[in-house]
């Protein structure tokens, strides 16, 4: 059985995170917590409950260092502590009992992992296929939450790109893995319960996001477009079309239209001037 650790990224979590962690923590050998919550904002109760999980350690806290750097810290700790695979989880993500059991059973049944860099679940229940001849299908890119990362392969490929901070971090990571000869596999029969970030609100079925989030989305898309279009042209083109529609909906139905336009423009300009990492405002 491969040695598996897990990492959970925390950012002003609610107590609901405790029940989410319970769905997978008892089958991993170690649980790393990366607390991106600033200014000691976690309640004493929540801290105590988080630290009561078995084999848990906090490897960063009290500053938002972004998704990429947080995962990289966990990868380095997992390597140092002798783990083969790292389960990457968001605070809002969790497995159903059967889903987690099946996910692990399928993973163990592979036996020969070869050049596999990532094993991922489905992130949308409606696309799950319970009766398939092939459990795993190769992907160009997957979301990061719920993934099993081969620690050695991930580090060999350069790990996560910290220039991106948040948004497109998962896609860039997958592209780099493939450039280094590793495969991305998705289990077609298992899904992760997953939320795509925290919206400001909704308009019908449209989730509305803060203006600063749009900054990262555009800036980082332009970054991966420039860096990876030659190797992954279809994905980059489809991603661009999706984001164009997404931005239009945010501007049409959001309550921060002027600020959103400013942040989109700032994202474009920062990309042109190769300004990346965390946005510090102007």
Automatic annotation (TrEMBL):
InterPro entries to which the protein is assigned, alphabetical: Glyco_trans_2-like, Nucleotide-diphossugar_trans
Domain Glycosyltransferase 2-like: 25-109
Signal sequence range: none
Record keywords: Glycosyltransferase, Transferase
Coiled-coil annotated residue ranges, if any: none
GO molecular function: glycosyltransferase activity
Gene3D superfamilies the record matches: Spore Coat Polysaccharide Biosynthesis Protein SpsA, Chain A
Family: Belongs to the glycosyltransferase 2 family.
Protein name: Glycosyltransferase 2-like domain-containing protein
Lineage: Bacteria, Pseudomonadati, Campylobacterota, Epsilonproteobacteria, Campylobacterales
């Amino acid at each position: 059985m491969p040695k598996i650790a897990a990492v959970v990224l925390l950012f002003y979590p609610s107590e609901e995170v405790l029940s989410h962690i319970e769905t997978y923590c008892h089958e991993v050998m170690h649980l790393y917590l990366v607390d991106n919550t600033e200014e000691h904002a976690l309640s004493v109760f929540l801290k105590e409950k988080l630290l009561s999980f078995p084999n848990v350690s906090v490897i960063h806290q009290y500053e938002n260092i972004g998704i990429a750097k947080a995962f990289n810290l966990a990868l380095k700790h997992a390597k140092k502590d002798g783990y083969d695979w790292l389960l990457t989880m968001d605070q809002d993500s969790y497995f159903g009992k059967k889903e987690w059991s099946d996910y692990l059973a399928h993973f163990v049944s592979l036996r020969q992992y070869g050049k596999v860099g990532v094993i991922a679940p489905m992130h949308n229940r409606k696309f799950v296929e319970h009766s398939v001849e092939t459990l795993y299908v190769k992907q160009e890119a997957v979301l990061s939450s719920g993934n099993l990362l081969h620690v050695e392969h991930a580090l060999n490929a350069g790990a996560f790109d910290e220039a991106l901070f948040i948004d497109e971090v998962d896609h860039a990571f997958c592209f780099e893995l493939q450039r280094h000869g590793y495969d991305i596999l998705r289990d077609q029969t298992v899904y992760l319960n997953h939320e795509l970030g925290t919206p400001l609100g909704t308009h019908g079925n449209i989730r509305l996001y803060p203006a600063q989030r749009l900054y990262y989305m555009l800036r980082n898309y332009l970054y991966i477009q420039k860096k990876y279009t030659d190797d992954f042209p279809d994905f980059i083109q489809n991603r661009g079309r999706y984001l164009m529609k997404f931005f239009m909906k945010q501007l049409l139905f959001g309550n921060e239209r002027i600020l959103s336009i400013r942040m989109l423009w700032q994202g474009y300009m920062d990309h042109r001037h190769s300004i990346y990492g965390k946005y510090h405002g102007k």
